[in-house]
């Protein structure tokens, strides 16, 4: 069971665990969606499920904007069901430049205090905040 699925402080699940096909909450959710949506019912019955172990994703970052990232899924053989997703940007692309921007903030020296921001990083500016 993944941690984000737990209700804070109680250990109770907030949502179904998709890795467990016998999960009662998942079964109830599928039943509810099936009774309310003909499109869901048709797609669920087709069970057209594909595993993607790599590809490209479009992501919108609130500070740097649109990113096009390649990804690879790395399954952990020691723990069935756990996967690490590794994302990367192609060199010399707008996405790479966008990702380098926050990294440059962390590598700058805080001139006011003389401290190295790599050990005391400043938070990124909020969009629309005065400079």
TrEMBL record:
Residues 121-131 have a biased composition (Pro residues). Residues 109-119 have a biased composition (Basic and acidic residues). The lineage of its organism: Bacteria, Bacillati, Actinomycetota, Actinomycetes, Catenulisporales. Residues 1-21, 106-131 are annotated as: Disordered. Pfam families: MLTR_LBD (PF17765). This is MmyB-like transcription regulator ligand binding domain-containing protein. Residues 19-100 form the MmyB-like transcription regulator ligand binding domain.
